[in-house]
Amino acid sequence: MLSFSTDMDRSEEFKLLASTFNAHQPIAILDRNGTFIKVNAAFCNLSGYSALQLKGANVRLLRSDRHNDQFYHEFWLALYEHGYWQGELWNKLKSGEIRLHVNISAVTDEQGHFTHYVAFYEDESVRYQQQLLLEQKAAQETSLSILMAYCLDELPMTAFLNQCMEQIRQNHQWHWKLLSLYQLTHSELHSILSHGACVQNNCEKSAMTQSLCRSVIQQGAPKELPLDALGLSSCLIEKDHALYAVPLNQNQKASVLVLYLPKFVIDNHESRAFLHRVVHVLGMGINKRISDQALEDARKRAELSSKAKSQLLSSVSHELRTPLNAILGFSQLLQDEGLNEIQLEYSQEIHAAGKHLLNLVNDILDLARMEQGRVKLNVEALSLSASLSETLAMVQQLALEKNVCIEFSDKARILPEVNADPIRLKQVLLNLLSNAIKYNEVNGQVRLHLKSIANQKIRLEIEDSGQGVPEDKEQLLFQAFNRLGAEQGPTEGTGIGLAICKRLIKLMHGEIGYQRHPVKGSIFWIELPFAHYAQEISAKTSRAHFNILCLDDDPIHLRLIEGLLSQHPELKLFTETNASYALEFALKQPVDLILLDLHMPELSGYEVLEILKASPRTATIPVVAISAENNPEQINQCLLSGFTEYLTKPLSVDKLLVVVEQLQQEQKQLLQHQD
Questions:
Q1: 10 Å Cβ neighbour count for 247?
Q2: N or C: which end of the chain has fewer CB within 10 A?
Q3: What is the maximum alpha-carbon separation in the chain?
């Protein structure tokens, strides 16, 4: 706020203000009613109006409809009361609407009355567009991760496509009018799948669509065709739509996936790139559901699974983690660059959103690993009561923020210990307690009860006073990506937590469930076996032999390995020189370790690994690369590709035995969790 004490002071300060008009920053002086008195050249360039046009005009000339009347009321009220306001303001200029950062200070007379306002403007449109782009990228990555999860889920074809289309419609404001899959059989194109609003309509674009599909098959690349260029007078699809055709390999036959969708989806590179990735996931999901060759041949089955499984997991880890690392890393660097308050707030918001998205990606990967049996637990005897007390300390702040009272009696410490993974158990407890607080009412209560059941299990009940789960949705609990309608509310979540909890408790030989509270709220419970009871189960599930499959086209090297391992009767060796036979063996027989030569004649070691990781029956088998090369770059590439270890020829039995011993220990830990 500016003030004047004498006429001389006022004159000098007005001269000082006038001198700033030569600066590059847009500046305007207004009277107390918001009428322009003077603007500098930079403001004229920004607004598109000349100084003569603005003089005497009210600032409402630049008012944007993006702000409601309440916003402007509070804006002027702040100026009248405090003589100062700064913030983000949309202005309607001659060139269009842009977002500006505005800093307004009042000028007072000797009596302290406001006489004028001096406004400084800063163009925020570039930064705003960058923020929108980051938000758009984050939304795209989130949608892709969910679509990929739908792809893996055991959903019927129609339900899969419905959920994918709804996800895109809600988060990106477009969907396809029609999705069709055409397959080339004996030189004829046949439609084998249709989905969307126009399925029942006889469309006159049929001949043109088939011509487009043939062109896509011949060129092996996606093609697009705007419909407004066709002059179709009776087409039921809007003319602002387009056809987008992508080649697919479905059941080893040339196929094309065609979508009729809004034309703006392919108007720019970013939108087209996102669409291509969506279509890629749709293609994997469709192929997964209509394959009728699953068990006919082991290698064909593995190759089909490779397209749906390995590509999915690699896309999740690379396509999501790579941009997320950039978002989190650079947003953190920006916070150390001396930003102003607004810029720091923006970078912190970007960083927080990136962390939230990273947690979602980690949850999806965690769920995928559990479904494939790749989660390793370190089980030990521990006190459930003690673990619960430690977890309660972690959620105390959340409970305070919502003023939720947690009641837990410490008398349960006399109960026997349970067998559980301490970290994973806390993960389950943290999820259940957080839900009990987040979905509770303000000033609500959470009650915890621990008790022994039939001298074999300990039961924990978590009772809350919230609204509970609707009766018609109780059967949907513990399903991934199903928030039972809570996605419309203010509470953040992904619908993955309970699904992960169920799998973790099952791995620890426990049970988890839900029951309605007789009055109001929910009761989630878990049961875990006593430590001695779980150890008895573990003893029954041990296995005597450790099976090793060695794939190498060199028979001399195979005989060498047989000789090296002949002195170890607990190790059972199987050898193959043909990759196809080895893959078939791994699919049908229990294998604990695969030794894989990188340079096979029909399939490379990397291709064999990709096929193994694609099939649920072989995805968790450790694979050790064997090669005569000792190149550090190749070793690093192998480990990054998913090989467990890298051994060089001639094979060292000591190194191999170290690997086997480590895997045997891990196997024992996993076997004790099998039902």
A1: 18
A2: C
A3: 106
